[in-house]
């Protein structure tokens, strides 16, 4: 945990917990059957089960699912929660009966999956008529120079104070260029762009909701190391608050979107 956001509860509150609130507010109803694709450590699947839903979480990474299972087995709320089951599987090859689920959730995974239209068609097939698709996704191609400039300023100040683990060039222009490159051009694998996800989402699911959310600050939180925890907490809240202001005033482009839609007839 020490190298991740899970090292501090206040960082979780500003990141994973806020993401879960978005999902929680999007899955309405009681005792639903929910599928989470790419559940990772399973924190969302577990919370959904604790809300009384019957949840299946799948992930192709066996090691990460071991953590999910361990958390499930040591859950103090195990007697009162809904069913919870994890499966190690590649969603491209995994199947269940058509029309099984009331809700299918993708959280920060669809951008990684090649052929998103095919993936979303599989989710469509697994949903009941009127079932909900909840997609909380990273659109990396939304990164713009203004966001990179803002990030450079924050990261460089933290670096100069000795509170940041990586090192950006001293020259601001080179620093901003390196953030742009790392986010936009420096990737080895293909990651789906915003339009590659948004188009099939809108075609296959009737959009009930669409919104943008803070995500740039996650990178800062991951690598900052402020020795005084009170100061780190205050700085993290400040950075997230600033990102929200910059998004709301359209000064920077956001990169995390929430789409919630209902199964449209095939
Ligand atoms: C960035 S993590 C997101 C984890 C979690 N959903 C969250 O929001 O924190 C993406 C996860 O998707 C999983 N994944 C990637 N491709 C997959 C596939 N084809 N089938 C199932 N899981 C996949 C990865 O193993 C990883 O655990």
Please characterize this protein's 3D structure.
- With 266 residues, the protein is of the alpha/beta class.
- It starts with 8 loop residues before the first helix and ends with a strand.
- Strand 4, helix 5 (116-126) and strand 5 form a beta-alpha-beta unit.
- The relative contact order is 0.15.
- Strands 3-2-1-4-5-7-6 form a 7-stranded mixed β-sheet, with helices on both faces.
- It contains 10 helices and 7 strands.
- The radius of gyration is 19 Å and the shape is globular.
- The mean pLDDT is 95.
- It has one domain (5-38, 91-263): Rossmann fold.
- Helices cover 44% and strands 20% of the residues.
- The structure holds S-adenosylmethionine.
- The site of S-adenosylmethionine has 16 residues, from strand 2.
Strand order of the largest sheet: 3-2-1-4-5-7-6
CATH class: Alpha Beta
Query: What structural class is derived from the secondary structure elements?
Result: alpha/beta
**Relative helix content:** 40-55%
Which regions have little confidence, pLDDT < 50, spanning 5+ residues? none
Our Rg estimate from Cα atoms comes to: 19 Å
**Element-by-element helix/strand order:** HHEHEHEEHEHHHEHHE
* Ends apart, CA distance between termini: 43 Å
Tell the overall outline: globular
Percent in strands: 15-25%
């Amino acid at each position: 945990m020490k190298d991740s956001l899970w090292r501090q509860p206040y960082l979780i509150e500003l990141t994973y917990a806020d993401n879960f609130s978005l999902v929680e507010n999007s899955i309405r109803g009681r005792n639903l059957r929910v599928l989470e694709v790419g559940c990772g450590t399973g924190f969302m699947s577990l919370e959904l089960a604790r809300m009384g839903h019957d949840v299946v979480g799948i992930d192709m990474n066996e090691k990460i699912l071991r953590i999910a299972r361990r958390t499930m087995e040591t859950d103090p709320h195990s007697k009162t929660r809904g069913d919870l089951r994890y499966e190690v599987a590649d969603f491209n090859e995994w199947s269940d009966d058509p029309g099984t689920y009331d809700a299918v959730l993708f959280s920060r995974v669809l951008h990684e999956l090649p052929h998103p239209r095919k993936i979303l068609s599989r989710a469509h097939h697994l949903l009941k008529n009127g079932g909900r698709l909840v997609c909380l996704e990273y659109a990396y191609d939304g990164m713009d120079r203004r966001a990179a400039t803002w990030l450079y300023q924050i990261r460089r100040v933290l670096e100069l104070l000795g509170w940041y683990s990586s090192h950006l060039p001293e020259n601001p222009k080179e620093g901003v260029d390196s953030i742009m490159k790392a986010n936009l051009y420096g990737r080895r694998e293909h990651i789906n762009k915003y339009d590659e996800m948004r188009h099939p989402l809108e075609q296959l699911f009737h959009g009930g909701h669409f919104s943008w959310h803070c995500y740039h600050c996650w990178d800062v939180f991951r690598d900052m190391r402020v020795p005084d925890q009170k100061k780190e907490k205050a700085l993290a809240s400040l950075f997230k608050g600033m990102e929200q202001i910059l998004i709301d005033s359209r000064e920077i482009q956001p990169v995390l979107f929430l789409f919630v839609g209902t199964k449209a007839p095939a």
